TrEMBL record:
Keywords: Amino-acid biosynthesis, Branched-chain amino acid biosynthesis, Oxidoreductase
Organism this protein belongs to: Serpula lacrymans var. lacrymans (strain S7.3)
Record's keyword annotation contains NAD: no
Protein name: Acetohydroxy-acid reductoisomerase
One GO BP annotation of this record: L-valine biosynthetic process
GO terms, molecular function: ketol-acid reductoisomerase activity
Domain KARI N-terminal Rossmann, chain residue ranges per copy: 4-187
Length: 341
């Protein structure tokens, strides 16, 4: 696999946005950050519209001086560019029913996550450009880093090049929201979705399970709840380790630890072959993520949730997870926090 191309400000021509009506569907975490960045880059306020249902996000957009449109048909008709920045699970319903039928044949549609595009859950006309500009940052950081004159990591791709001008326009939009300042990495909806869902369904579940079982074993060996919670995460040591991994290197950060710790971690991890984990990970990636099995199951859950009186399955998952010894012990420790600190 060749190295990914990285695009910078110099690769982008902002003049491609001259006179274009740019609509943001959603003014939440990403929408508010990206719309404000775009305006601060110099795109006139008159060219920017926030399409939003009547809620506190719409009030916030208005308070920040944006033109807010509640009628989605009108917003769809004027959009030369549409950023879809509402939660992924509601995008197909809102976009396909309210925007798709009214949009210009050559409009540019921008997503910040590959999920709905990769799984073909959104409808597009053949001449439309569909691009992904996906910040790898929470919305508040997309805004604060821009304000500090710094960039943020971002993935960019052209998923449908209807006009033949998809890449230059994607780059102009990326520069507008501040995404090419630190370098936007060429990616794809497939790559972004695979990595995101894999992390959520394979990597982090294993990490949660490891912490849960480590807790059980050490507790059985006589360690106290208080000592375990602080040792394992409440001291914020794991957060610090990952911060150092980002700054110094995944392995190089180990040099900040004691010699005994370095020896234990390096020899221990090399002893674990990981063969069965690799097979388990491949199974999740190919037979659950990339083949659309999870996507189908999740869409059914979403449909069920629309039924009256339906209970969100997340409630049950939280209930069972809170029953684990780790969670119960943490609850007890947190109740004593004032005593401890
Ligand atoms: P959010 O949860 O902050 O979205 C809130 C906005 O969606 C509000 O404007 C609200 O009025 C609107 N909204 C919610 N439900 C709606 C409905 N049923 N109909 C119409 N409007 C509705 O969304 P967020 O987190 O900014 O995500 C937007 C996109 O950005 C998603 O595709 C997400 O994957 C992507 N993304 C999010 C990141 C994050 O850190 N939150 C990071 C990178 C990408």
């Amino acid at each position: 696999m060749p190295s990914a191309r990285i695009f910078y400000d110099a690769d982008a021509d902002l003049s491609l946005l001259d006179g274009k009506n740019i609509v943001f569907l959603g003014f939440g975490k990403q929408g508010s950050a990206q719309a404000q960045n775009l305006r601060d880059t110099g795109i006139p306020n008159e060219q920017i519209t926030i399409a939003n249902v009547k809620d506190s996000f719409a009030d916030e957009a208005r308070a920040k001086g944006f033109n807010v449109e509640h009628d989605f048909s009108k917003a769809a008709e004027i959009a030369d560019v549409l950023f879809i920045l509402i939660p992924d699970q509601v995008q197909p319903g809102v976009f396909n029913n309210k925007f798709f039928p009214k949009m210009k044949d050559t409009a540019v549609i921008v997503v910040a996550s590959g999920y709905n595009v990769f799984f073909n859950l959104l409808k597009f006309k053949p001449q439309q450009d569909v691009v992904m500009v996906a910040p790898r940052m929470i919305g508040s950081s997309v805004r604060s880093l821009y304000q500090k004159g710094r960039g943020f990591p971002c993935f960019i791709s052209v998923e449908q090049d209807g006009t033949g001008n998809g890449l230059p326009i994607a780059l102009a939009l990326s520069r507008g929201i501040g995404a090419t300042k630190a370098g936007a990495i060429a990616s794809s909806a497939r790559e972004e979705t695979a990595m995101d869902l894999f992390a959520e369904q394979a990597l982090w579940p294993n990490i949660i399970m490891m912490f849960r079982e480590a807790f059980n074993v050490l507790k059985e060996a006589g360690c106290s709840d208080e000592a375990l919670c602080y040792e394992m995460w409440m001291s914020k040591e794991p957060a610090e380790i990952f911060e150092r991994a980002a700054d110094d290197g995944f392995i190089a950060q180990l040099k900040h630890h004691s010699t005994i710790s370095q020896y234990g971690q390096l020899s221990g991890s090399l002893k674990l072959e990981g063969t069965s984990t690799r097979e388990h990970f491949k199974d999740i990636l190919y037979n659950q993520v990339l083949n659309g099995k999870f996507c189908k199951a999740f869409s059914l859950i979403e449909e069920d949730l629309e039924k009256e009186g339906a209970e969100n399955p997340l409630n049950e998952l939280y209930r069972r997870s809170e029953e684990t010894e780790l969670a119960q012990a943490e609850k007890r420790v947190r109740a004593r926090l004032a005593e401890l600190l």
